Amino acid sequence: MTIAERPSPTPSVGEPTSPDDEPAHGAGARSRDAGGRSRDADGSSRDAGEPAFDELARRVDAARRAADELDAEPSEVAVAYGEAVEAFHRPALVAMVRAMRGDERGKELLFELVDDPHVRAVFSLHGIIRADPSTRAERALDTIRPYLSSHGGGVELVGVEGPVATVRLTGNCTGCSMSAETLRSTVEEALVGQVDEIDVVEVAPDEPAEAFIPVDALRRRSPAEAGWVEGPAVDDLTPDRLHRVDVAADEHGPSASFVVTVDADAGHRSHVFVNACVHQGLSLDGGMLGDGVITCPWHGFTFDAASGECISSPGAQLEQVPSRVEGGRLWIRARGR
After folding, report:
1. I want to staple 75 with a disulfide (CB 3.0 to 4.6 A). Which of 70, 104, 188, 205 is the partner?
2. pTM of the complete model
3. Does one domain contain both 146 and 93?
4. 25-45 pLDDT tens trace
């Protein structure tokens, strides 16, 4: 996410650029206002020698990316510092905005200030001004799309009208019980929980699409041809540790390795993930499992044991693999996902 969407809390201002570096014409041309301040093409004004908005935004984005690339503990410290700075600044900004809104001339000045991209970015960061409900709804759905994708599904925002958001579920899970229950509940929680204006979520009907079905596809395939492999006995899977399952290479595909977790609070339901941490791709088996959290044995990255979502680095996700129980054994769709 860039500063255009959400400004970083810890920009590095650096040394101001020289006024001699300002272009005299073209796309980057600047004019001067009555007070001698530079006015950029985007409408923002600044004192001579101050960096332009785009340059400041690039510095902030670079600093944020550098923090995200740190190992878990330093990254958490950097993010906590940024959040503390935000929390310190917000009351002062809110107090200034309230004072200006209480005066007619202040209101006029406030509307003029919001046209400046610097001011608009800072106000957006602190929640003083907010994007429209549809934009915030899309952002809310972005937070759950990795989870939906891990179940072979997806979601599209059809629109937001008043308190009602309409979505369309897509992908392999459309129409199945997972779509009707877990996926819909996940989407509803994200939208209602993150967008104040939304109280109701409705699911739009599927749109039929023309498709050509080869004759070969009508032939019933064996489980191996469909990518399924037989795993361990369900009775051998316990909720106190990670279980590694290796699949040897054969005529149906290459070798693969998976880890299995068991949720004792959900009827001993199994969750299967590719045996590779999102940090450096190293194996997860041998890591700790406790309180519903997987801890990578190499660098301590943590993941939700049911969804695979990364707790240490939100937005990252373990690759979850379809599985089923049949004949007392766990079957894993190791190929053709």
Report:
1. 70
2. 0.39
3. no
4. 333 444 444 445 555 554 555
